[in-house]
Amino acid sequence: MALVCKHGETRADTKPRAIHHLKATPETVHWGYFSPDIKPALIVQSGDLIEAEAITHHAGDAPELMFDEGIERLFTEIDPSTRSPGVHIMTGPIYVEGAEPGDMLEVRYFQMTPRNNYGSNLAANWGHLYQEFGEKERVTIYQLDPNANTASALYAYDFPGKYLVPGTITHCPVCDREPALPGITIPARPHIGTAGVAPAVDAPVSTIPPGLHGGNIDNWRIGAGSTMYYKVQVKGGLFSIGDPHVSQGDGEISGTAIEASLNCLFQIILRKDFSFPSPLLETPNNWIVHGFGADLDEAMKGASMDMLHLLNEHQGLSRNDAYSLMSVAADFGVTQVVDGTLGIHVRIDRNLFPQKGVTKDPS
């Protein structure tokens, strides 16, 4: 895949150069924040492949199932007081040689493989219906079937107290476990909930809200076979991944997805030939633009204006034609309503523009 640059121009696909392995250790993760001041965990060149471990901060919801030695080190060796101002365990950052502010990072996701076959969904205090459920928080543990690529609930329990500390470890043998969702199987769709570049700011930026740097976008379509584009804000880009999921619905209404650790294979390509104002997603069939805001109206306006930019600047449509096409062919959806800053995404079929802006990978 290749994004159109300007009125039909495209760039050649970049072949992999080298492959790097980035484990999640106390030395290679940052918990809860993006910052330009973090020392790079890895330095790569454009076109390099990276195998990176993305660890869920909810592994402590069922440590006997979701921990291994490497994950346990993160939970026991990283000071809880440093897990702020957000909650997600971020692997990185990755420094891309030659990346300068204003450039774009093209991140091609090839594989997302569950690290173990379990995940957790928390109906949390930040969930959309927390008050309607009497301010009760509840954990549902899911088991994955990697052969069928499905998930089903294993058990559930009411969380004791209030879930406030990122990386809380719950010793569920002392909880009252209950059956959950009997007879229901859901499709697994592994994806990255939070990823992005370092913002050009002086203070740490929380991983909880999404923004122009990326962050907690929580779009389940950011999985294997997709490509994300992020606008570089600081030298080297400083790209990080985290908040891995194995399934989520649009809205993420309870506050979380099925949170589960993933091993991710992706390629980072430095793009100096085009620019885009917000995180842009390219899937085999669609372009998807994201908008963010304090309310859904603001997020809708942002998504609309950036899709207009895509159609006008990168597909060569007039603004009037682009506006008409958006109304008759683009689909808007609520990405999430639980991350403080709300998210709207809008997708349009790439096949509406045959042979324009898309090149086939010769491999």
UniProtKB/TrEMBL annotation:
Transmembrane segments: none
Organism: Sphingomonas abietis
Alphabetized PANTHER family for the sequence: FORMAMIDASE C869.04-RELATED
Protein name: Acetamidase/formamidase family protein
Pfam families for this protein: FmdA_AmdA
